[in-house]
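Entry 14. Ran structure prediction on the chain below.
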Amino acid sequence: MRTDMQDKLFELYKEIDAICREHNIQYQLAGGTLIGAIRHRGFIPWDDDMDITMTRKHWNKFLEVCNNGALPKNRALECQENNRGYHNMVARYTDTTTTALHKTQLMHDDIAGFVIDILVYDALPNTGEALEKYTKDLMLYSDLLNESLIYSYRYRINTFRYLKCRLMMRLKGKDYVLNRLEQEMSKYNEDECDYLVLHWGGIPLVFDKKTFGESRVNIPIDGTMGQCPDRPFDYLVDHYGDEWMFIPPVTEQQSHEAVFNTEIDFPVIRDEIYHFVSQKKVKRKYRIRKNITITHMNSWLDLKDMGNKINVIAQNHKYSQD
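Output, C-alpha cells:
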C-alpha cells in the first residue's frame, strides 16, 4: 500500500511515462525505484522519491517536448538548460503545488515540490583516460553549481581549476563557463561508444551500454508498466552490489531529510524559514567554507591520512601487547 507521498509521486511518474510513450522517448526506472519495482512490486515501503534515467539523446528530446507544451498544469521541469539559477546537475520533474523541501534546498530558490529525479547518462569511449577526464570535469561542474556541497575534495582534484573558474564566471559570466564544461562532458557520440556514465555529482557510475539496450523492456510497477534496462539485474549489481535484493534492517531503512506536505506549496514553508535564517548570510558562509576547503584540500587530506595511519599503528601495537 502506498503512502500519500508515494501516491503523489506515482501520479507524476505516470505523467512522465505518458509523455515518453507518446513521443517515442526511452527512459529507465533506476536506483531504489527499480529495486522497489522488482523486490516490492511497487515502492520500497519507506521510500520518498522516484528516480528515472535517460541517455543524453533521449533527455534532449524529452526537454524539447516539455518546453514545447507537453507539461501538464502545475508542473515544472527544473534543469540547467532551463534555469542557470538552479543549483543541481540532476533534472527534476516537479509539482508546484506541494512541498518536498530537502535540506540542500533551504538556501536556494529552486522549485521544491514533489519531484521525480531524471538522471542523464553521457557517452564514453573507454573507462580509462576518458573517464578520468570526465570525473574531473563533472566534479568541477558540480562544485560550481552548488555552494553548500563539496565534490572535488573526494578525489583531490580541481584545487586551482575551481578558483580559476570562479574568477572566469565573474569576468565572462556563468553561462560561458558552464557551457564549456557541458560541451566537454557530452562531446562523445552515444552511437559510437561502448559505455555510459551517470551525470551525477555524487559518483560518476559507469555502465556497459548493452546493460540498457534499445528494446524497451517493461516491468510491472504498482499496477502499471514501466520501462527498465534490458539487463536490470546487471544494472542493480553494478550499482548496489550482490545483496540489493535483501531487505535491509530497520536501522538502515533511510529516507531523505526533508519537509514534506501534499497540501501546502513550498514557498509558504520556505518563507517561514527565512524569518529565522538569512539566506544571504548562509550562502556567503558556504562560499567561504568551500573556497578554503578546496584551496587547502591536499594539506587537510594529508593530515587525515596521517591520522588514520597513526590509529592503525596504535591499534596494531595494542593487539600485539594483548
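Residues 297-321 form the longest helix (25 residues). Will compare against last week's run tomorrow.
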